[in-house]
Design goal:
Elements lengths: L6 E3 L21 E3 L21 E3 L14
Parallel strand pairs: 1-2, 2-3
């Protein structure tokens, strides 16, 4: 499975929505790239399971609000 995945690059994919359980089994993910998409909103549960995440890239999206409850 994907349990050992450490880097996931999803930039430049025209993503507009990230389902809240998309990353549920990626406990070892260290780096997540979501640059240059069309993301407007993030569910507060989206990144909760990414306990080892060190780098999150969200530049060039349409996110209006982001706060500490997302982690």
């Amino acid at each position: 499975g994907l349990e050992s995945l450490q880097v996931l690059e999803l930039s430049f994919n025209k993503l507009s929505n990230i389902p809240k359980n998309l990353f549920i089994d990626l406990n070892n993910l260290l780096e997540l790239g979501l640059n240059v998409n069309k993301i407007e909103n993030l569910n507060v549960e989206t990144f909760k399971s990414l306990i080892r995440l060190k780098k999150l890239r969200l530049s060039t999206n349409k996110i209006l609000m982001f706060n500490k409850e997302h982690f």
